[in-house]
Amino acid sequence: MKLRIQTDYALRTLMYLGYTGQTARSEDIATKFVISKDHLVKVIQLLAKHGYVRTTPGRGGGVSLALPAEQIALREVVERFEGRNGLLECVENPEVCPLEPGCRLRRALIRAERAFYDALSEFTIADLCTRRQQGGLRNLPFDT
């Protein structure tokens, strides 16, 4: 399974904000992660729409977490950005499968997707950006 770039940028943004604990400009986040600022702005708008971040316009504005990082579930973010469409079309719509009823592949894919999301449910954004960990965000030159 491969996450979309939009999901990747959303997770990086939330981790950055959780790690620094400060309001940040989208330009600064894009620069730190060497990603497209224009695409990041669209992702931040979606994060705001879903209630994960708040944006403040203007010279002194920026983006900040709207919730404590401990309350932002990794599973929920990935589900919102990726959707639960199934790994193949037949997972959500068994009528497209010529092997149904009884296709074992479909059942295996449903189980795999469930396991993926169950594994993500063990983590919050706070778990991903703790300062105690080696590597990860600690390798980026944050100004905190």
Keywords:
49% helix, TR_Rrf2-type_CS, 2 strands, 7 helices, Arc Repressor Mutant, subunit A, mainly alpha, 144 residues, two-stranded antiparallel ribbon, elongated
**Which CATH-level-2 architecture of the largest domain?**
Orthogonal Bundle
Biggest β-sheet description: 2 strands, antiparallel
Q: Which word captures the global form? A: elongated
Unreliable stretches: none
Termini Cα gap: 34 Å
Please provide a written account of the structure.
The chain is mostly helical and about 140 residues long. It folds into two domains: about 1-70 and about 125-144, Orthogonal Bundle (Arc Repressor Mutant, subunit A), CATH 1.10.10; about 75-125. The protein is about 50% helix and about 5% strand. The protein is built from seven helices and two strands; from the N terminus they run H-H-H-E-E-H-H-H-H. It has helices at about 5-20, 25-35, 35-50, 75-80, 90, 105-120, 125-130; strands at about 55, 60-65. It has a two-stranded antiparallel ribbon. Helix 4 (about 75-80) packs across helix 6. The radius of gyration is 18 Å and the shape is elongated. The model has no long low-confidence stretch (mean pLDDT about 85).
